[in-house]
Description:
Elements: E1 12-18, H1 33-37, H2 47-60, E2 64-69, H3 78-87, E3 91-96, H4 103-109, E4 115-119, H5 125-131, H6 142-154, E5 158-164, H7 175-181, E6 185-189, H8 197-200, E7 213-215, E8 218-220, H9 228-234
Parallel strand pairs: 1-2, 2-3, 3-4, 4-5, 5-6
Antiparallel strand pairs: 7-8
The structure holds iron/sulfur cluster.
Iron/sulfur cluster binds next to loops.
Amino acid sequence: MILTGARVPVETVNFHLWQPCNMKCRFCFATFRDVRRTVLPEGHLTQNDAERVVSLLADAGFLKITFAGGEPLLCPWIIDLIRLARAHGLTTALVTNGSLLSTETLRSLRGILDWVTISVDSLNSATLAMTGRVTAALPASETHYLDLCLRLKENGFRLKINTVVTTANHFEDLTEFIIAAQPERWKIFEVLPSGDRTQERWNPCWSPPTSSHDSSRGAYPWRRTACGSFLRTTRR
Ligand code: SF4
């Protein structure tokens, strides 16, 4: 990455600072496969280098920075990094699987972190276990996710939810959960158009003609799908 000092033409930047993760989602794309071999064998920069990146991004004129991974809350200096970004005047955001958002961590993030994005693909414990969206300690359930969303909002964070649609969860309707959790944004990944847009709304599901996808985290046995009901839900 070269930052020349000229003002950047976009306002926001994502910093994937930490490859290690405590989940093993079978569809994960954040393998860092190319850079781990040579540039980042540990899957992350040193704290000094990571802080320099944040300062350079701020100096280059970015207005918002999103810290992502892997799981960025595994990074021992993530609080320092977010605090530095805030000191530079940046709007700050964090993308997390939500498993490490303890009361103490939320307290540390209050006042320096604006947005929290958590991943909610399913409310079904069996589906979450099958897709790898679990940790040994995480009680993956609707109650857990709803409680987490409400705690985030109570602590003053702006809430965004990410959902990855695969053949493991494409019949699941998250409407009631989303209404209860009240995120400001809900991003659904891999929702693709299915041809005629008037019929698309009523298609129960559409699977793109792709072959199964290999991930360094294991063979990926599902094809990602688009689902009309999710499209309808996002247009409410
Ligand atoms: S939570 Fe899942 S998708 Fe996100 S980085 Fe970890 S393994 Fe990948």
